[in-house]
Design a protein that fits this description.
This protein is of the alpha+beta class. It folds into two domains: 205 residues, Up-down Bundle (Butyryl-CoA Dehydrogenase, subunit A, domain 3), CATH 1.20.140.150; 40 residues. Helix content is 63%, strand content 8%. The protein contains seven helices and five strands. Strands 4-3-2-1-5 form a five-stranded antiparallel β-sheet. A hairpin with a 3-residue loop joins strand 2 and strand 3. Helix 1 packs antiparallel against helix 3 and helix 3 runs antiparallel to helix 4. The termini are far apart. One of its GO terms (biological process) is regulation of tube size, open tracheal system. It is found in: Membrane. Its main location: membrane. InterPro entries: PMP22/EMP/MP20/Claudin.
């Protein structure tokens, strides 16, 4: 058995109790019993599949047959009282409680698989969902069964001496077992949801690490190309501005208080021409009056 979470262990506990009680209730003839206050009660006890009489006679049809002892409820000798022995509500009780018991038996195999499977198994979550769903379905079917029998089982229109008939301990076990199916199934569904999200989280955490180097290379290449393109655009703009300044002759200086090389060269040429002209002009002597 692999290690299980607390949720899974609680689900197993609820399921174990539910399965034990439901199977006992399914097989026991103590759903309805006489209270023991009568000395010779005609009716003794009845379960889903067995009934016990003590000198019971069908008074409506005046048959000569007297029923004594415990027999299977579908025994051939009981065919003449099937309309009394098997009313509609009791057939419904048998049907729905049988569905609940079948769900419990099917869940036994799935519970065994759950205890053996590892959490990393591909079918682990599917198994939990199926197990939880089957248990919840069995719970609803069993709930219909016990509610129906609890409402009509000790009524005055069924077994003789109805005022001395009580719901038995097997019925009580069936009720407890059915109620325990709901938390068992719900906890298995919760465990399935938790394991599903854990698997998704693990998959998301593993995928980036397997492609990190490749993604980094692509990212660096894109950043390098973008940076080179930006630099090229800036350089092209500067060159374009410089050529426009050369053709127009009004290239602005790059910084305040600093003249351009072309303007400086023009100023130096003008100054040298003025100096040459002043040197070539003769200086006349000054005569004082």
């Amino acid at each position: 058995m692999t290690s299980k979470s607390k949720t899974g262990l609680f689900a197993l506990g609820f399921y174990t109790v539910a399965a034990l009680f439901i199977i006992i209730a399914f097989a026991s003839p103590y759903w309805l019993v006489t209270d023991g206050k009568l000395k010779n009660p005609k009716f003794v006890k009845i379960g889903l599949w067995e009934v016990c009489f003590n000198g019971f006679e069908e008074v409506h049809h005046w048959y000569d047959t007297v029923f004594k002892g415990c027999w299977w409820i579908f025994e051939e000798e009981y065919y003449i009282i099937h309309d009394i022995l098997l009313p509609g509500f009791f057939i419904a009780t048998q049907f729905f409680f049988t569905i609940a018991t079948c769900c419990v038996l099917i869940s036994m195999f799935m519970t065994y698989m759950y205890m053996k499977k590892d959490k990393d198994d591909d079918n682990y979550v599917t198994l939990l969902v199926t197990l939880g769903t089957v248990l919840v379905i069995g719970g609803f079917a069993g709930l219909i069964s016990v509610v129906t029998f609890g409402a009509r089982g000790d009524g005055r229109d069924w077994m003789p001496n109805w005022e001395h008939n009580d719901l038995g301990w097997a019925f009580a076990l069936g009720v407890i077992g059915i109620l325990f199916l709901f938390p068992a199934g719900i906890l298995f569904l919760i465990e399935a949801r938790v394991q599903k999200y854990k698997k998704l989280h693990n998959m998301q955490s593993r995928e980036p690490s397997s492609h990190t180097m490749h993604e980094r290379k692509i990212g660096f290449s894109v950043l390098f190309l973008l940076s080179a393109w930006k630099t090229l655009c800036q350089y092209s703009r500067k060159v374009s501005l410089a050529w426009q300044g050369l053709y127009r002759g009004d290239l602005a200086p790059e910084a305040e208080g600093r003249s351009s090389p072309i303007a400086g060269a023009a100023s130096a040429a003008d100054a040298s021409e003025v100096a040459d002209e002043s040197a070539s002009v003769p200086v006349l002597p000054r005569h004082d009056a």
